[in-house]
């Protein structure tokens, strides 16, 4: 599945067709792509926050303890794995509404490859500078949205009009899920689950 990485970034329209036609189970998709790619942000974040620390403005860098950073990295990784599966399930479920019923494996492939720019931009967490992460994260997010809009009609085999509406619905669900996750993190933070900082 990693063989599709270059194509999905530089020639997505053609690569989506190859991904659609690939004989790939959910397990193979996860083992050959998602488990590897989803590890990039949490592993980078672990080393970035323990070795260099977060830089916010002109303040001194804030480092996390290795134990605290490890817990956050593992949780981060699990959330990404669950997030890909959940979005795939949501696409599969919503497909009935748009007369685009495909098997769950194909829907999960769509979710996984749509997230590719977000996985790759995770390398920037090796240098956890807030403004830099924000500046580079926005184009990655925008490219993921582009991949969704170009890939969904191909993967789900619907016309462009239905594909646009379907993609917009998936995007809305993804944004709601992101807000819910951020709210959950804030609640945990203020209820005794804040990370441990070191000097």
From TrEMBL:
Localization per Swiss-Prot or TrEMBL: Membrane
Keywords: Membrane, Transmembrane, Transmembrane helix
Yip1 domain sequence ranges: 6-181
Gene Ontology cellular component annotations, sorted alphabetically: membrane
The keyword Protease appears for this protein: no
Keyword Metal-binding: no
Membrane topology, record value: Multi-pass membrane protein
Pfam family, one: Yip1
The protein, known as: Yip1 domain-containing protein
Organism: hydrothermal vent metagenome
């Amino acid at each position: 599945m990693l063989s599709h990485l270059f194509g999905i970034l530089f020639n997505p329209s053609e690569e989506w067709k190859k991904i659609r036609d690939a004989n790939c189970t959910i397990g193979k998709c996860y083992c050959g792509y998602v488990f590897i790619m989803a590890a990039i942000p949490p592993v980078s974040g672990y080393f970035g926050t323990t070795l260099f620390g977060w830089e916010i403005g002109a303040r001194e860098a804030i480092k996390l303890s290795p134990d605290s950073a490890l817990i956050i990295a593992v949780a981060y990784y699990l959330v990404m794995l669950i997030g890909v599966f959940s979005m795939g399930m949501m696409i599969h479920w919503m497909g009935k509404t748009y007369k685009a019923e495909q098997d769950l494996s194909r829907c999960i492939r769509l979710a996984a490859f749509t997230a590719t720019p977000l996985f790759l931009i995770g390398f920037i967490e090796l240098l956890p500078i807030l403004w830099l992460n924000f500046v580079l994260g926005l184009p990655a997010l925008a490219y993921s949205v582009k991949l969704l809009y170009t890939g969904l009609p191909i993967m789900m085999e619907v016309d462009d009009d239905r594909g646009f509406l379907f993609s917009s619905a998936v995007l809305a669900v993804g944004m709601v899920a992101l807000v819910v996750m951020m709210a959950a993190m804030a609640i945990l933070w203020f209820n005794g689950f804040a990370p441990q900082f070191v000097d």
